[in-house]
Every structure is written in C-alpha cells, then in structure tokens.
Fold each of these.
Amino acid sequence: MTAISETLDNGLTISGHCAPEFSGVLTEFRANFVERNEVGASVCLSHEGRTVVDLWGGLVNPDTKTAWEKDTISIVYSCTKAATALCAHMLFERGLLDYDMLVGDLWPDFATAGKEETTVAMMLSHTSPVPHLRDPIKAGGIADWDYMVDRVAAEAAHWQPGTRQGYHGLTYAWTVGQLVRLAAGKPLSAFFRDEIATPLGLDFHIGLPESEEPRVAPMIASDPAEVNFKSRFFKAVTTEPGSLPQLFLTNQGKANFNSREIHAAEIGSANGITNARGLAGMYAPLANGGGSLLQAETVQRMSRVCAATQMDAVLMQPMRFSMGFMASTDNRHQGGDSIILGDAGFGHVGMGGSIGFADPSAKLSFGYTMNRMGAGILLNPRGQSLVDAAYQSLGWRSNASGAW
C-alpha cells in the first residue's frame, strides 16, 4: 500500500495507507474534508482479507485543533447493533439460542402484555412489538441495565408480534442484548470482548474502560440547517407527541452520549466505541465465509433480507432488514434517507452517518466513522461517497437499481 500524509487546502491533514487500485476512496475522503464539511474521520476497507485502505484525518476537536490520530476512536451509535446481533448469531451456532424460539422460553418476564408470541428472529429483525417505551425514561436510565430490562419486559405490545416492522433504535440494547446475556451467561459487553473483539484484535468497545477515554473524539451535533423537516419522520417528531418517531428521538432519559456515564455503560444498540479499522475488522470474517466467527451457512442465513416494508413504523420510510443488519435501501426518489450497498451486502449505519458492512459477493468489508454528525437517519453524502468509491474501485459500475 502507498503511505499517505497530506495537508489539504483547508489546512487539515489526512494520513494512512491506500492501495493504488483503491485511490478513488482516497479521492472521496479528501473531498469530504474540502467540500462536505468533514471535521474528523476514519475509513478502512478490507478486500479478500487484506487491508487495502486505512485512512484517518481532520480534527478530534475543532476548538482545541487536536488532530485525529491513527488510534482515535468515537461512538458509532447504531453500528453497535451489528455487534450485538453478531453475538446472538454466534450463540445460535452453539445451540444456546434458536431463531424460532419464543423469547419467553428464555426470558419469562418478557412474555406479558401482548408480547407472548414474540420470537428471537422478530427481535433481531425489528418486528418485535417493543420498538420504544411509551412512558418517560428516568434521567440516566439508559445507563442502568436492570432498570431498562425491567422497563422493556413490562412494556405493552405496540402491535401483534411480527405483524409490523419498526426500527428498535434504542430498545435493541435490551431486547437482543438481554437474550445474549441470558444465553451466554455473561453480559453482552463481556461476550463481545471475549469472543469477537479480543480474538480479532479489534479496538472496539461496548462499555469503554476509563483508561481509553482520552482517545475518544467528542461527537458534534448535526447542523439544523441540514435537517429535512418536510420528511415524514421529522414531521412526526415535531408535530406528533407520543408518536414512535418522537419517542425515538426524545425519550432517552436525557442521555449525553459524550459523557463518561454513557461511554462506560452497556448499551448494545447505541454506545459502541471504535474507529473504521474496528468496524471493517469485525465484518472482515463475514465477508470471507465467516472465518473464525461463524459457518458460511449462518452468514448466508443472517444476511438474507427477512423484513421489508414501505413504511417502517419508527423511521417512517421504506426499510429493508436482515436478522440484525440493514440491507441496501434506496429512498433517493422518495425524499427519504438511503443506505446503498451491493445486493449481497449487509451492515449497519450509526446516527450521524457512520457505517460498517460486509459484502461477501465482493469479499469486501468496510468501516467509516466521523465526529461531525449528519442530519439524516441513514447515510449522508460523506459516507455514501466512500461506499460508492469502494465498489467503483472493484469495477462495479452502477447502483441505479438501488444496489451496487
């Protein structure tokens, strides 16, 4: 790979390595800082098990002018859901979970108030009936595991299990996360660390040790001027009190995701902390037959689209999910947000625009993290431009169909 060390026209620097055949990714990474208001970011690609792009640059903190370094990490929000789902699939292979089993068989307290017929697969695919909590979450509540598990177990069903799809933006941490804890006999954070992060050498944490806190780039809120307030999602957020979109964005127990309290907690839907190298590294085995993590048959099953709708009950737009992952979803012509991958690709975005994914058909794994959040609910032009450049570098020519 070619070593990269550049100072851009705006004074920001980018560093790392890039294989010549993937120079298009480097071009778009530069453009993000010069043309798309990137502040600090990292991008990493693995192809056929070989790292071909590993870039970072910009600023951790614009006020202090601290540079984004090779080992800078940041919160990746819902990219964490993929890590949580991966733990569940590993437990499936070990015979400790079954996709078709009733949740109540493992977690009896959950099987109440219309949720009795919920299966493990429904929880993984966002068709379980607890997309959010109706009543206010107490201040600091999402950092309190036992409190949140009890709240989710007591929540009355929002619909008959399996009959609607609604993104479990926050509650995924305590639906799938609790299943992992019960099946594994240890917390999700410990299972992920012991079975995935440590064996793969990933700098990826669900529950960040205090010793690592100095490396974390604080997140910068999105610019309200970029928000599409005409979208169905934001109309519901701003005009429909008690709606699922409004609950998703506002009923979070006044959580500050830049706080040590949130970084230290176990929130398997929202508080993973890593960089692009960590995301691409987690997906690399999945892009190459499962590697040391899973059998190829399990990867095929978990990556297959199993839930799709023209109107997700929370995101208020078309969405496509496999069991624990997002699939390519093209809303460019409908005024919504998109994530455009290859047909065989599966992964997850994080709020603000981070993303990790695997595409077994291309033997490609990908990670992108940043600190300046975009205003949409899926990818924004910064992340999508890097994804597009990755596919184009492999000779793929069009995503006009809605997938590469």
Amino acid sequence: MGGVVCAKMVSMSSKAQFVRSDRVTHALDADAAWQQLVRRDAAAEFFYGVTTTGVFCRPGCSSRLPLRRNVRFFRTVAEAQAAEFRACRRCKPDAAWGRPLDLVRGYLEAHADRRVSLDELGRVAGLSPFTVQRLFKQAMGVSPLQYQRALRAGGLRRALKQGGRVTDAIYAAGFGSSSRAHEGAALGMPLARFAAGGRGERICFTTARTPFGWMVVGATARGLCWLALAATKQEAEASLREEFPAAEMKRDVGLGKWVEAAVRAVTAARGAKDELPLDLRGTAFQLRVWQALRAIPRGETRSYSELAREMGMPKSTRAVARACAMNRVAVVVPCHRVVGAGGSLTGYRWGVERKRKLLEAEGSS
C-alpha cells in the first residue's frame, strides 16, 4: 500500500501536563503583562484574574477587556486557583493541553519569516520536541512545519495582491527561494497535488451505512482527508472522486474502523473520544477555524460570530463561515455544531436534515 496508514488507528493522550520551572521563579512584570493583555497576545505566558467576577482567563480570551484596577496577573493556573479565582468557561485556562498549543501556535505566527525547529518549539512550550510535534498534529491536523508553510503562503498571497514584485514578495513572505515558494504557495504544504485534483496522491477509501446516511472516508498516508455523508453509496463515493478526480483510489474495508470511530464521535457517551489521524489541507486561517470547531464540546453549539470571538477575531465572522463551508472532514471536524445567530440550522454541506440528526444524537448522548 505504499505506506498508506489506511486501517491503523492512532491512539492519543487527551492532555499533556507541562511545567517550566524557569518561568515561575521570576517576578511577573505587571505593566508589560497589561500591555500584552490589551493586545490580546495569545502567546503571552501568564494568566489574569478579574476581581469583580472572580474569574481568571488566558490573555487571548475573547471576553470583554476589564479595567486595569480590577486585574491581577498570575504565572500559573495553580497561582490563580490559590487566589480563589475560578477558570473562565470560554477560554478554559485550566485545560492543560491548550496552553502549550497556544504558545507554539503563537510562536510560529510571530516567526513566520524563518523556519522554526522542533527543538526551539520544545523550549517555548516546556515539552520535548516529539511531544510538541504530536500534540500540534493532534490538534491542528498538520505538523508545525506545515502550519508555518501555510502562514508563509498566506503572506505571499497578500504581498502579491499589493502589487509588489514577485521576487520581493517571495522573500518578504519568508521563502528562501522562488522554488520553495512555488512548492508551498498553493496552501502552504505539499498541496500542489490536491490543487490538481489529487494527482500523484494515493487515497484509500471505504463506505458504510450509518444512522446519518451513507458515509465515505478517504485517507492518505498522513491520515483522514475526506469524510462525507450522502443518501446512497454511489453518491458518497462520487463525492470523493469529484474532490480528487486525479488521485489513485483503492478500496480498503479496513477503514470501516474509521467509520465506526466517526459515528462514535457523535453517539458515544460524552468524554469518550476516538482520535483519528488527520490530513487537513488548508490555509493557516482555515486550520485555526477547523481546530476551533474540534474544541466545541459535544452537545454544545456556537454561532459563527461566537466562534469568531472565541478565536479572538470578532470581525472575521464571514471568513469563519467560509472556512466552515470548506471543511472536508464531516463529523470529525464538527462544523455541524455551528448554527445561525438565532439558533437556526442554516446551511450544511451535507444537508440540513443530517445536521439536525447529528445535533440530536449529540444532545441525547
């Protein structure tokens, strides 16, 4: 199978603890921390509590900016809790897995003009390079290197739109050469294959009947790249071939385990979770939206504007909606959990009635 991981399940730990002793021994500069809070710097390495609410948050939280006189700063979650502050339900500062991810993502975005090594990211997050790679891939569906390439590709597109010289735009975006830019400019990863309908890509797939219609899953050597729902088996398989018309397709019944895992993501008891390896291809912004979708708890929904605010980008509601619409992996990346401002089900790529059934299944689990 040329290394395709088709029927292999990947187990993952849901949380990662980390402690950086060198980050808790020195005093926190309250004035500098306040300036980072005002900027909503998601990579800032502290927490803040609001005395009028008794809640503590991450600096990148989308909640309203408090008055300076009502703010206290803490280096760790334990410090905030010892001061009798409770964790914010919106940014979940006590979720141990989220903190290193925020640090790594923020660091990559701040240093998009150069290649950042896993060793460097490990020092930023207080984790081993291997753990950084694993956690980031679990949450984002791409490696840190692929995410940084997506950031550079976005910078290149913005520079070209401004009418500058191509060569200047390439180097300004952080690409070391024009050949590197052409390799990654489509969407920041080795995505020329996907842009060309999957030419040169091998995709294993299978279909199965589920409570939500026929489901088709497709997987590359890197992980799940397509999951769609349809009324018939033929329609389900056709959706995969329409998305990747030039790819080599091979049926693999072993992927039935992935179908079962996807269904359990909706129907199993809350807290139970199967982790599937993902091969998500998109811009850096799309990857962030898809990761935010995966962070919505089962049984809960968000409006597009709420999701944008939680991401710290309240003016990007339409862009968030477009990224949701571009999601290639139904159910596992749960765009069905995003609804209209008034709770209406709005549009859904795989049918509004299926969206209703998915939400009903999650609400009753």
